[in-house]
């Protein structure tokens, strides 16, 4: 079958597969592919954008791009999400760290952070809702990194500054430890939480 997919580990590495042998029979969230956004990329179509369960916008055009390390939102939605994050951080023990140039927006704490787990309680989940039921949840660890300076940085970037126009790209950072399946025969995209550290036994290439 004309099926491919990937599973990227948060610890690094992961695997790529071809064929349907590794696609679970249950537990996968499926949504139709949309051909309207880009012929070069896979798109699950327009989404509703939520932050912490609050609806921020509709008809949010999304493409999935495993070639992008980070996630990019168009200038409008990047600004909206950043504003919500900053609002939530008011009164929290995090301060902006403009001296850290790892990514455009970073925050520092009283002491260096070792992992996103140290700060995830201060951030909310970003959710993309497709159709009536399909949802892709992007938890804090799906859009934050810890820099070599021990600060936490926002892995959602302004796509306009990268020349992407109005495209919203879900990159590797947001699908780590998620099995993503592209079924080109049924024209659908699926995803499910997964342990991407475990290499499957057949039909795959490790990363």
Automatic annotation (TrEMBL):
In this chain the Peptidase A1 domain maps to 1-192
One matching Pfam family: TAXi_C
Q: Which GO terms describe its molecular function?
A: aspartic-type endopeptidase activity
Q: Which GO terms describe its biological process?
A: proteolysis
Which domain of life, per UniProt?
A: Eukaryota
InterPro entries reported for this sequence: Aspartic_peptidase_A1, Aspartic_peptidase_AS, PEPTIDASE_A1, Peptidase_aspartic_dom_sf, TAXi_C
Family label: Belongs to the peptidase A1 family.
Descriptive protein name: Aspartic proteinase Asp1
The species is Anthurium amnicola
Q: Source organism lineage?
A: Eukaryota, Viridiplantae, Streptophyta, Embryophyta, Tracheophyta
